Amino acid sequence: MTTRKATWTIGLVQQQNTGDRDHNLRTTVAGIREAARRGAELVLLQELHAGLYFCQTEDTAVFDQAESIPGPTSNELAALAKELGVVIVASLFERRAVGLYHNTAVVLEKDGSIAGKYRKMHIPDDPAYYEKFYFTPGDLGFNPIETSVGKLGVLVCWDQWYPEGARMMALAGADLLLYPTAIGWDMRDAEDERMRQREAWITVQRGHAVANGLPVVVCNRVGHEPDPSGVNPGLQFWGHSFVAGPQGEFLAKGGESPEVLVVEVDRGRSEQVRRIWPFLRDRRIDAYADLTKRFRD
């Protein structure tokens, strides 16, 4: 009889990217190997880890970077997952069909198989984040992906601002919430504004942990990436990847430089927390119908 581990050992690969895909993937692979060497059984990568964050401009040539799933990057990472015996959550620019592209997280099982995919549901369209030009909104819903380490509630970047996505994953039985992310500052903003933005980003995701009684795992990129058009100064990605427990407590925190985080997370803590804070029990599901409206006029 197999005894279930009392903890998850989770790794995060926070890296700085260049325009060289092979270099980026070598960095990713090295980070996964380090995490596995330090005991990680689940490794989360940052959003669009194979390249630069290309959404600062709208350029049709960028679609050449997209790939199918399975495809070259997912196949390489699948082989690594099998070699190391780890579950990998990777974020890719998916070419689904001619003219149809998604921002997709793929979960690779320990045996190298694809456990499942999540296509980013919330797509931003803001200065330096022109994602609607590239990505079709996801159509797979908010469904946790069953793996050997548990049910993973995978969401992507802009999804992190929406409590609905986190709650839907929790209601479907997710054991963990995971967010691969690419977010940073416009350095023309004042320093106090930049700090407010970063603290809001951290706080809202810790709130998802509290509201749902689940650990939250967040992996963000670091470093400066210039605006290809030269019109703007580019983005400075702030890193600060972190893992929070089901009461929002920090279990691991990164800085603003490339690093690999590895942390132990108590599997049983969510059960204990939900017994004393039974938010799911006390939800007034009879009174929430208007949540499906855009606005209550």
Automatic annotation (TrEMBL):
<dbReference type="GO" id="GO:0033388">
    <property type="term" value="P:putrescine biosynthetic process from arginine"/>
</dbReference>
<feature type="domain" description="CN hydrolase">
    <location>
        <begin position="8"/>
        <end position="267"/>
    </location>
</feature>
<protein>
    <submittedName>
        <fullName>N-carbamoylputrescine amidase</fullName>
    </submittedName>
</protein>
<dbReference type="InterPro" id="IPR003010">
    <property type="entry name" value="C-N_Hydrolase"/>
</dbReference>
<dbReference type="Pfam" id="PF00795">
    <property type="entry name" value="CN_hydrolase"/>
</dbReference>
<dbReference type="GO" id="GO:0050126">
    <property type="term" value="F:N-carbamoylputrescine amidase activity"/>
</dbReference>
<dbReference type="InterPro" id="IPR050345">
    <property type="entry name" value="Aliph_Amidase/BUP"/>
</dbReference>
<keyword id="KW-0378">Hydrolase</keyword>
<dbReference type="InterPro" id="IPR036526">
    <property type="entry name" value="C-N_Hydrolase_sf"/>
</dbReference>
